[in-house]
Amino acid sequence: MRLGSLILAGGRSRRMGRPKESLPFGGTILLAHVAAALRACTDPVLVVARGLDQELPALPDEVLVATDERPDGGPLWGLLTGLREVRARGLLGDRDAVFATGCDAPFPNAAVVAALAEALGDREVALFRVAGVLQPLCAVYRVGVAARAAGLVAAGARSLQELVLAADRRELGEAELDRLDPGRRCVADLDTPADYERARRGPS
């Protein structure tokens, strides 16, 4: 099985107050930081942007970009766009998989990605459940789950929770997450300026 990754970058960053993808982070900008971390453990890396109105920051040539099929359609549309793109470009087949995250999740963890890929087996999705909540933006998806996602968006669904609840999934628990990532940083995202400042400061 080949393993790529998708970075969903189409949000409006309303709570942050400025585009998250362009925030300074780790000596570069946030989107490039996340892409570089994923380039080290997945191939290809595909960024899903909102549309022509979104000006992405400069990215390495190896990082691919796609435009969301339905701008502002929610993260489920973003994931579906990415799954369709890697298949249409001949980068991955239906039995291959992608790790999916958001551009506002600054700490992808190669050990976590590898563990999720191994846990996937013959399932459609492998992800963590933390404090009773499934984590669909730190998850590995079989490319073929695009068919299920398409059916859901046709019925009006927008959230990734709806997809993972409907999918044939394997759940990993908090003990496994803590073994791989004791600070659980891989499931943290930056929604507000306070989140951003804490992440820049690093673990306390």
Write the layout of secondary structure elements.
Elements: E1 3-8, E2 24-25, E3 28-29, H1 30-39, E4 45-49, E5 63-67, H2 75-88, E6 97-102, H3 110-120, E7 125-130, E8 133-142, H4 146-154, H5 160-166, E9 169-172, H6 174-180, H7 193-201
Helix pairs in contact: 2-4
Q: How would you describe this structure to a colleague?
A:
By secondary structure, the protein is of the alpha/beta class. It has one domain (3-201): Spore Coat Polysaccharide Biosynthesis Protein SpsA, Chain A, CATH 3.90.550.10. It is 33% helix and 23% strand. The protein contains 7 helices and 9 strands. The protein has helices spanning 30-39, 75-88, 110-120, 146-154, 160-166, 174-180, 193-201, and strands at 3-8, 24-25, 28-29, 45-49, 63-67, 97-102, 125-130, 133-142, 169-172. The strands form 2 sheets. The chain has a 7-stranded mixed beta sheet, sandwiched between helices. It has a two-stranded antiparallel sheet with strand order 2-3. Helix 2 packs across helix 4. The longest helix is centred in the middle third of the chain and has 14 residues, at 75-88. The radius of gyration is 16 Å and the shape is globular. It starts with a strand and ends with a helix.
Total domain count: 1
Low-confidence stretches: none
Mean pLDDT: 92
Quote the CATH topology.
Answer: Spore Coat Polysaccharide Biosynthesis Protein SpsA, Chain A
Number of helices: 7
Q: Fraction of residues in helices? A: 25-40%
Architecture in CATH?
Answer: Alpha-Beta Complex
How many whole angstroms does the radius of gyration measure?
Answer: 16 Å
Largest sheet: 7 strands, mixed
- The level 1 CATH classification is Alpha Beta
Instruction: Specify the structural class.
Output: alpha/beta
Looking at how many chains there are and whether they match, the oligomeric state comes to single chain
The strand count comes to 9
Query: What proportion of the residues form beta strands (DSSP E)?
Result: 15-25%
Shape: globular
Order of helices and strands: EEEHEEHEHEEHHEHH
CATH homology-level superfamily: Spore Coat Polysaccharide Biosynthesis Protein SpsA, Chain A
In whole angstroms, the N-to-C terminal distance is 38 Å
Strand order of the largest sheet: 5-4-1-6-8-7-9
